[in-house]
Amino acid sequence: MNPALSVAVERWPIAGGFTIARGTKTEAVVVVATVRRGGCVGMGECVPYARYGETVEGVVQALQAQAGAIAAGLGREALLQAMPAGAARNALDGALWCAEARAAGEPVWARAGLPRPQPVVTAFTLSLGTPAAMAAAAAQASARPLLKVKLGGDGDEDRIAAVRQAAPAATLIVDANEAWTEATLPRHLAACARAGVALIEQPLPAGQDGVLEGVDSPVPLCADESFHGLHGLDELQRRYSFVNLKLDKTGGLTAALAVARGARERGLGLMVGCMLGTSLGMAPAFLLAPWARYVDLDGPLLLARDRVPGFAFEGSTMQPAGPGVWD
pTM of this prediction? Predict the structure, then answer.
């Protein structure tokens, strides 16, 4: 007999590698939770993230520890109390949503009270590199309407200028991944303004971004590593105009719905983002796209191959998930 919960680790090669300020990856390592309930099977994917103290082994153990509770009928709302926010809960929450929707014969978006999914344009990420390398990547992607530019500190002004010159028509988002400092912030903000950047993600390290309360930034700022859930939103709204909503941080779609509403009530704009994973990991977050000013769910586009079935992309336009991706 199949268990009520099974857990698997999968490795997906990245096309050409992926570099941010914290290092380079050549593969996306994801953890998949599969729940069997009422004759239906649901799956959810997460990406353990070392920046938040997570490991693949730790996430697997946390999921396996819930096997008895899942067999006893643990639901999504009770899961919020049974597990802390983070990658492990995201995988299990996704699997429970999927199994629940299949048992009910209706899509997740309807059960969640969300609008019917429509095609959306996702950002396409340019890996951190030398200005010349990033310019070459930007030229190759210049037909894409929205580019996300990974930055790393020293040399970022040159990187920004090079990318803008190579992709003059694209809307640019830059992601510093906490690599700037209070001392370098003014010149980096000025460089972004000159290049017509639309949004800057996490310019300063989380915990050191209090100085942003006194900064009149020429470009809107978006919290990523500083933002995880409802806690701290009142503080963040004094420092940022946007927050990056990632389900691996909130611990799944169930919690993300409340977090998104809380952010919107405070006048914060939303970016819906992702870790580097497959279409299965993008599917729950895709449902939040109608609430977002920016969508950054390009994980599958950065992989050498995606799972089948997966999202269909027309350039940077994501089509709603078809049957079998995630219900």
Answer: 0.96
